[in-house]
Amino acid sequence: MTTGINQKMFKRVQHIIVLVMLLLGSMQAVAQIAMPDSVCVGGNRIYKVNDATVPSTYTWKIDGVVQASTTNQVSITWNNAGTFLLTVQEHTAGGCDGDIRSGVVYVIAPPIPNAGPDQTVCFGTTIRLNGSGSALFQWSPATYLSNANIADPFATIPFAGTYQYILSANSNNGCKSVKSDTVLITVRQPVKVFAGNDTSITISQPLQLNAIDVDNSGFTKYNWSPSFGLNSTLIKNPVAILNNNITYTVTAQTVDGCTASDDIVVKVFIGPEIFVPNAFTPNGDGVNDVLRPILAGIKELKYFAVYNRYGQQIYITSVPGQGWNGMVKGVMQNTGGFVWIAEAVDYKGNIIKRTGMAVLIK
């Protein structure tokens, strides 16, 4: 082949052009990019020289490996990261070979997202996710997350259960992760502690407190506050000796750090004594609906009985905290006065008897 022919071939084969498909709204357009080319792993490119009307064949190679295309363009899907040399040589219909044109292709590895270790947390705890492996992140779903587009958003999950978050990533050069990563967040059921029913005692009467693990969650630590009147604040069942009304709060903790709190109201009276209100309003509003004795310094309630104006017993109980709701055989009684009689044993073993009158007000 003569030098003149070689020069002619040199002029005919242009630089390799990269054809990139662009999505514009709902339409596609083709953009041309000059070599060298940068592409993400998994990306597809179409490389082209000359015009399809030129009656020639072409040899395309990647690092010396011949590709299948013999036309003026080749479609390549880059599946491995690295730097590659793409070459093309034209062969005319007359049997002459042109100059070899080449271009460098940089194939960029995709980011590998890491969603962090699975976590098990206490109910009500704010969790921080720990994503890594890139510069740009996307968590899915975004539910309960402070920001789904950062590596370490906070998750505030309002319900117990197991939640799955999927992390995808993009690098600064636009490469997307080929695979996502998943983290499981398990939120434990809420733990509950019961400090006991509100109660009444007399001045200097020892009161045995007792915190109850409602759901057998396995509390290992207890803390009562305030410390006033308690023989210990760090056990489940301290003893209180008081001369004033007080509200105690107990906070219990499991071995894995889950906590629960509850209050108990203690009213302190001069006594021992049986107190009964002189009126009640059984109207269903939740306030003073039931006529019941208030026991201060009482160890045992023998009975609490209510009588109508004819001397007929219409109610009796020996259960502390229970009382008469104003009804007899399912019928609400009229406004009027009713006599009550109570007998109890105080914490020292003494018998206490009391009687009085209470008015039912509608």
Protein architecture, described:
This protein is mainly β. The chain folds into 4 domains: 3-108, Immunoglobulins (Immunoglobulin-like), CATH 2.60.40.10; 119-187, Immunoglobulin-like; 193-269, Immunoglobulin-like (Sandwich), CATH 2.60.40; 273-360, Immunoglobulin-like (Sandwich). Helices cover 3% and strands 50% of the residues. The chain contains 1 helix and 32 strands. It has one helix at residues 3-12; strands at residues 17-24, 27-34, 37-40, 44-48, 56-62, 65-66, 73-77, 82-92, 97-108, 119-121, 126-128, 136-140, 154-156, 161-170, 181-187, 193-194, 199-202, 207-208, 212-213, 219-225, 239-240, 246-254, 259-269, 273-275, 279-280, 294-296, 298-307, 313-317, 327-328, 331-332, 336-346, 351-360. The protein has a 5-stranded mixed sheet with strand order 3-9-8-5-6. The chain has a 5-stranded mixed sheet with strand order 25-32-31-27-28, with no helix packed on it. A 4-stranded antiparallel sheet has the order 2-1-4-7, with no helix packed on it. A hairpin with a 2-residue loop joins strand 1 (17-24) and strand 2. It starts with a helix and ends with a strand. The relative contact order is 0.09.
